[in-house]
Design goal:
The chain is α/β, with parallel strands linked by helices. It has one domain: TIM Barrel (Alpha-Beta Barrel), CATH 3.20.20. The chain binds zinc ion (ZN) (2 copies).
């Protein structure tokens, strides 16, 4: 199954304003993807409309969010159950410092309806750290039947390797996000205990043209096993 489980909508201030639900799903279809997840920074506010549009256009969809921990590590969290995803969203809201977004500096945080019309915007700045550590975030995610991915593990900013220097063996995560095979080999060499983990290639697209078709399928057996454990 061809997937891209890390795409930003225009609700993320750093993403392009044309990252609307229809544009994202149509671009994913053009790229031959079968399942996507939009992971906006620290909010699941766009998830219901994303899922509705994906369903209408016959695209697989998983609820997602990219959380920035107090250590400034990015984790993508995925959910299959909408109510549980919203429970996690409420918890995130309680842990997000109430700093207003400066649109001129950070960009728009637009919310869309199922016709790509802007119906509002998030007033609190989404591009900041929540007040919880990676361990607590992972624990809460699992309580809400979610699964946890170490986002862009080899990126030069906000990855677990830039922030901590290594992957802690006692951290309860489920997937590792990479950009290519070289990154996988490098991370594996650094952490020989990583054997059964699921690796996934995502675009972390902030612009429509960043959504791309990857050559490898996700390991569906491992993916389904993660959900059997989570649900
Ligand atoms: Zn990130
Ligand atoms: Zn991202």
């Amino acid at each position: 199954m061809r997937v891209d489980l890390h795409i930003h909508s225009a609700l993320s201030p750093c993403a392009s304003d044309d990252m609307t639900p229809h544009n994202i799903v149509n671009m994913a279809k053009l790229c031959g993807l079968e399942m996507i997840s939009v992971c906006d920074h620290n909010t699941l506010g766009q998830q219901r409309m994303m899922a509705e549009v994906a369903q209408k256009l016959n695209m697989g969809y998983i609820f997602g969010v990219e959380v920035q921990s107090i250590e400034e590590v990015h984790l993508c969290i995925y959910f299959k159950n909408y109510e549980k995803a919203m429970e996690f969203d409420s918890w995130l809201k309680m842990n997000l410092p109430s700093i207003s977004n400066d649109v001129r500096y950070f960009g728009n945080q637009w919310l869309f309806d199922d016709k790509d019309e802007v119906i509002g915007s998030e007033e609190i700045l989404l591009l900041q750290s929540v007040t919880q550590s990676i361990d607590v975030i992972a624990q809460k995610a699992h309580q809400c039947q979610g699964i946890v991915s170490l986002a862009h593990v080899c990126d030069k900013a906000n990855s677990i390797l830039t922030q901590l220097g290594f992957i802690p063996q006692n951290l309860e995560f489920d997937l590792i996000e990479i950009k290519n095979q070289d990154q996988k080999e490098w991370v594996q060499k650094m952490h020989p205990w990583l054997k059964e983990v699921l690796w996934v290639r995502n675009s972390d697209a902030h612009y429509l043209q960043d959504i791309d078709l990857f050559e490898e399928d996700i390991d569906e057996e491992k993916w389904e096993a993660l959900w059997r454990k989570a649900l």
